[in-house]
Hints:
about 260 residues; alpha/beta; Rossmann fold; about 40% helix
Amino acid sequence: MINFKNKIVFIVGGSGLVGKKIISKLNKLGCKKIHNFDLKTHKFNNSNRVMNHKIDITNIENFNSFLKKKVNKKQLCPDIFINCSYPHSKDWIRNNFKSVDHEDYEKNINLHLNSYIWTTKLIIEKMKIFKKKGSVLLFSSIYGVVAQNNNLYKNNKLNENFSYPIIKNGINGGVKQFAAYYGKFNIRVNAICPGGIINNNLKKNIKFINNYSKICPMGRLATPEEVANTAIFLVSDLASYTTGTLAMVDGGWSII
């Protein structure tokens, strides 16, 4: 049985679609404390276990400052770090091949890829200093492993995205580098690579859902619950010999 008793968790983006599911499950599995770093707030059941921190995770200086002040002894250092955030610029919709410019591309590389990698390094160094046997999970995507399928975007309002696959490929490379270096310190680092996840906005886009379902071997998008279940496994002791893995949660999308 999975048991998170006495585990301290830091999660970035815990107020999002999948993040809320992850926190809910960690709560039920008995985590000692869950620190949610998100600009949005969400009230969780057993809220005495969940602490919300309104911190812009893309502001590395602020996050580093928080760690220096708050994580100054072993009892406060996380055993588990999860980043399931989705930082991007306000004009993210323009990040397609036709419209993207260098400034917008560079901005999103910094907001998403660089914040993922550097906050992970800051957390892992804390784990190493306090000799924590820790687990780190970053969120990537099928598009960190395979190219975008342009057939998805036919006859609907969505476009391909120039920057997103580059960012997710970078995260996957970072996961392997971290896992290779920090394994000797008993710190595991993995990535979860979801396919399309159903949400309220996508439910309105029937053409996209149909396009996706025709290509995906399982014939549908994932639910947030299914992605969260895999996340729980990867950060648990059941995955104690799993590190550097890119776990595909995609209904078979990446095998064809």
